Amino acid sequence: MRLVVTGAAGFLGQRLISAILARGSLTNAAGVVTPVTRILAFDKMEAHAFGDSRVLPVTGDIADPGAVACLIDQDTDSVFHLAAVVSGEAERNFDLGLTINVDATRAIMERMRHAAPGAKLMTTSSVAVFGGAMPATVPDSYVWKPQSSYGTQKAINDLLLSDYSRRGYIDGLSLRMPTIVVRPGKPNAAASSFASGIIREPLNGDMAICPVSPKTVLWIMSPEQAILNLLHGHELPRALLGSDRVINMPGLSVTVTEMLQALRSVGGDAAADRVRMEPDPAIEAIVNSWPGNFSAERAHSLGFTHDADMRSIIVAFMRHMGLH
Amino acid sequence: MRLVVTGAAGFLGQRLISAILARGSLTNAAGVVTPVTRILAFDKMEAHAFGDSRVLPVTGDIADPGAVACLIDQDTDSVFHLAAVVSGEAERNFDLGLTINVDATRAIMERMRHAAPGAKLMTTSSVAVFGGAMPATVPDSYVWKPQSSYGTQKAINDLLLSDYSRRGYIDGLSLRMPTIVVRPGKPNAAASSFASGIIREPLNGDMAICPVSPKTVLWIMSPEQAILNLLHGHELPRALLGSDRVINMPGLSVTVTEMLQALRSVGGDAAADRVRMEPDPAIEAIVNSWPGNFSAERAHSLGFTHDADMRSIIVAFMRHMGLH
């Protein structure tokens, strides 16, 4: 089994590769569980190779069709496409967002269609495709009204992936992910960056700024859970999926207040007191356009899973970072 | 006021230009009713100039960015973008569909953004963006699940138009049109072509084939009504539109049986007996994926209108064709 992972140097890419190496085998297009012999770990910076000869880091620009052509050939069984421009950056730089989030994704599908027809494409979408007036719990049948360029671009990918799959050009599946909490590393340009920052920074002894109201409701998933669901989606028998290749993932619906209470409970007062509330209208506008709860009926029926509670997300983060 | 009409040689483009000439003035970006001084009538074949010096037919390839650049400049007030590859053709020729229906539309928006920022863009979407399990009457909040490449491409345009408008690059509005009945002229490659054919051909004394079950429910609008709604949308005060720039149009929900009964009532037995039922599974699959009824609440609240009944649609067609 030969895999391609884009965004391989990102925190999800690294965890995905690590999880695949540990697992050793995945289900191929014929439905047969097959040893993974090669993972092309593509990113603009060199991805971690985990000291494992199956992992080949490849650096390049995902917007370069030549790079995509080198990456995917007739031996490619599955592509995990995680490379993306995050929401805040896509809002600031419209052209870059379209180039990376739409054109590069389309180029990957085009290349798969011609070089590896029918290969699996796993990718992630976002709750940012939703917006406007919404019920408190958003059903699977709810319309997409993105209020950001990032959400627009993810919705376009979802449409293209569905059509390429319906036509048999690729075997695509897009998991519409909640906000991923707790991301490791530094704050990034995602409008949702604070959702990890208000947990991560205080646990590391640093101050964090919360730019949204404590009443803000977020739909979240831990990185561990996101990887479990990506692999679950990859392994699912295609007969169960039918033609609908975009699935709202299950998640946890939590308020910022509940997140901070869990932080206080797990990390103590010293950690919780390192969060300063400083509302930022630009970030609040984007974050409040995302729904805080979903029914995710189809995902549940297909066996996708969610985190137990906010406390367990924080404990898992501390364990991962060696803080616990 | 300087306008651009793409697809200007098509039956909707011709009627639109004729209606604009008769009206003489339209509302500009500043909300002021202003005389129309120039209509660039763009199509791959030469559009009708109506013997009117305000109409300048321009021929070219809408997929050529150079042509688009010539068409739209800082003096452009409004673009009516009607050029498209129809559903059957987009299903057969995936690359052509993407090139014309997505890439050319995006190139128009890009050109407007840079050469005529904030100018109005009126375009049409399609009920083909819907599909899968649906309620009998589809609400405005219902998810898009296109089951055809045409529907996918129209949905992508709707997303891009909304984002370009939200960012202030253009002032876009996409009207999600029912199936247009009765189209004049010859059958085309649209999967919905029969819906006009079963009325038009019998009235012209020719045989027509109906490739779907008589129970098939269609959501339809006459060409006259479509033009009225395009102009209504163009004239609407933008404060009423807000950020949601894609509107499900009102229509008539009719069965094929009801259409044929109206044909018999208006055109007589001789006409009605010229329709032969010959189911075509490929066409039925596409047509049955489109909903037969919509609530169209937002359209109603904004003053968009629908045809009175099937009979009046047929009468108007006969009048237009000089058959009545």
UniProtKB/TrEMBL annotation, chains A, B:
Single GO MF descriptor: oxidoreductase activity
Protein name from the UniProt record: SDR family oxidoreductase
Domain of life: Bacteria
Stored Pfam families: Epimerase (PF01370)
Signal sequence range: none
Stretches assigned to the NAD-dependent epimerase/dehydratase domain: 4-206
Keywords for the protein's UniProt record, in alphabetical order: Carbohydrate metabolism, NADP
